[in-house]
Structures are given as structure tokens and as C-alpha cells.
Specification:
CATH class of the largest domain: Mainly Alpha
Helix content: 25-40%
Radius of gyration: 20 Å
Shape: globular
Structural class: alpha+beta
CATH superfamily of the largest domain: Transferase(Phosphotransferase) domain 1
Oligomer: single chain
Length: 260
């Protein structure tokens, strides 16, 4: 995969001494997320505050990894850095018009036999993970605006036959604006294209439904109405609601059977 650097960041990064892969790799920074040692290597995240010439700051997340690979059909033995897949999906969603992380820089190098990768994204300042927001504490109108923003984002993803594949509330970031709420997706490493929209829809909505612990039944039903662009309890809403409930029951039953 080719190197990437966002055009609107080039001058700014150059002023901060970040012109090359080596500049990013050797940059001293505390760990925001301690390195995760698995897949035969490691992968960690740092948070950087970079200063502009006027004294203002811009924040990015610097992700670095070495020999942290995933095996693929094209690379069954050596594998490829997991950031390759994540960056591919970031660009894929960007092209599809699905709000997600904003890429700043990406590159891969093989140095002394080790596969190193750098992925830099712009900080989602002002955004909050969905799992940290209790909808019950919001006013009715704000709660509806929040859920509708999430439903619109997820629907746009699925309309492109894309499945997030790990659609938990912690991977949906939201921010309140004057017009309501804005929502974005993160953690895109496992995102994949599906042949049928329905396949992507059911898997992702099942994951979201099982993990939105702060949502009431009314919240969940409103989400489906918003997702399907329906203001009434149509057969499409009823069928999807029933399908999600059935999947949830089967999971709980399988868990209980395993415990017994």
C-alpha cells in the first residue's frame, strides 16, 4: 500500500519536523495505549499535541507497530501489518462518504527484516464514545437526535454493503452540535465489504443491540425507525426487531447451555 499524507497537513507537519517515516517512528511520546504484544510483534498508540506557527495546537494519535501482522490470502505466511487493513478501510469509508477517522499519515517500511507501520489520525476533539453517554440523562429531544445521528451513520455504512464487524458503542463517537449530533466510526481494522447489504446489517445491528446497555426498549425501537426511514411500525421494522430479538435469545441460550 502506498504512503499517504493528507495535503492539508503537509506544511504543518513539516514545521513540526515530521517529514518522513523515520521522523514519525523516532518521535518521543508517552504511550496513550501501552503496546499490545501479540501476532508476533507489538502495536501501541501515542497522543501528540503539535504546535502551529501561531501558537495554536492540533492533536493527533500516532499508532506504531512492528511485526504486528495479519495473515491474508495474498500473504499467507509473512502476513501484512494490521494497519494496512485499517488504513485501507479508513480510505474506503472516506470515499463512500461515511464519517470516520480522518487520516493524516500512513506508511510501511521493512527494516532489518522487521515490518514496521505508522498510522496517524486526527484527534476527534469534542467527541465522546457512545458507551459513555447515558441516554436516560438526556432530554427527550436530545436523546432522539443522538439516536437518529447514530442510525443515519450506520445506515450509510450498510448502504455501501460495508460491515463494521465490531460495531460496539465504544467504536461510535458522537458530538453535540447546534444542529443536533454528529457521529463517527473508529476501529475499522475488521471492516469488510459484503455481497449483500442485509448480511452487513444483521451482524452489525445485532452487535450494537447487545451492547447498548444504556438504551431503553423505546430507544431501540426509535433507532430502527430512524435506520429504516420509517415513522410507523411497518412490517420491515417488525421483522428486523424480531430478528434481532431472536439472535439475542439464541446467544443467551447458548451461553446458558455452555455454563450448564
Amino acid at each position: 500500500m502506498q504512503d499517504y499524507q493528507a495535503d492539508n497537513w503537509k506544511a504543518f507537519l513539516a514545521n513540526n519536523g515530521l517529514k518522513s517515516f523515520d521522523d514519525w517512528w523516532q518521535r518521543e511520546a508517552d504511550w496513550f495505549e501501552e503496546p499490545n504484544y501479540r501476532r508476533g510483534g507489538w502495536s501501541g498508540v501515542s497522543r501528540l499535541e503539535l504546535r502551529a506557527t501561531d501558537g495554536s495546537t492540533r492533536v493527533v494519535f500516532l499508532k506504531r507497530q512492528e511485526n504486528h501482522v495479519a495473515k491474508t490470502l495474498l500473504h499467507p505466511l509473512r502476513g501484512v501489518p494490521t494497519f494496512v487493513r485499517e488504513m485501507h478501510n479508513i480510505l474506503r469509508l472516506k470515499e463512500a462518504g461515511v464519517a470516520a477517522l480522518e487520516p493524516v499519515y500512513f506508511a510501511v517500511r521493512t527494516i532489518n527484516g522487521a515490518q514496521r507501520a505508522v498510522l496517524v489520525t486526527e484527534s476527534l476533539d469534542g467527541f465522546t464514545p457512545l458507551d459513555e453517554i447515558s441516554t436516560g440523562e438526556l432530554e427527550h429531544s436530545a436523546r432522539r437526535q443522538l439516536i437518529k445521528a447514530v442510525a443515519t451513520l450506520v445506515r450509510r455504512l450498510h448502504a455501501k454493503n460495508l460491515q463494521h464487524n465490531c460495531l460496539y458503542p465504544k467504536h461510535i463517537f458522537v458530538k453535540q452540535t447546534g444542529a443536533g449530533f454528529e457521529a463517527r466510526l473508529i476501529d475499522l481494522e475488521k471492516t469488510k465489504r459484503r455481497l449483500f447489504e442485509r448480511t452487513a446489517m444483521v451482524r452489525d445491528l445485532d452487535s450494537l443491540n447487545r451492547h447498548t446497555h444504556n438504551w431503553s426498549s423505546a430507544d431501540r425501537l426509535f433507532f430502527l425507525h430512524s435506520y429504516l426511514h420509517s415513522e410507523s411500525l411497518t412490517s420491515a421494522v417488525r421483522n428486523l426487531w424480531s430478528q434481532l430479538l431472536e439472535r439475542r435469545k439464541k446467544r443467551y441460550k447458548a451461553r446458558e447451555d455452555k455454563n450448564h
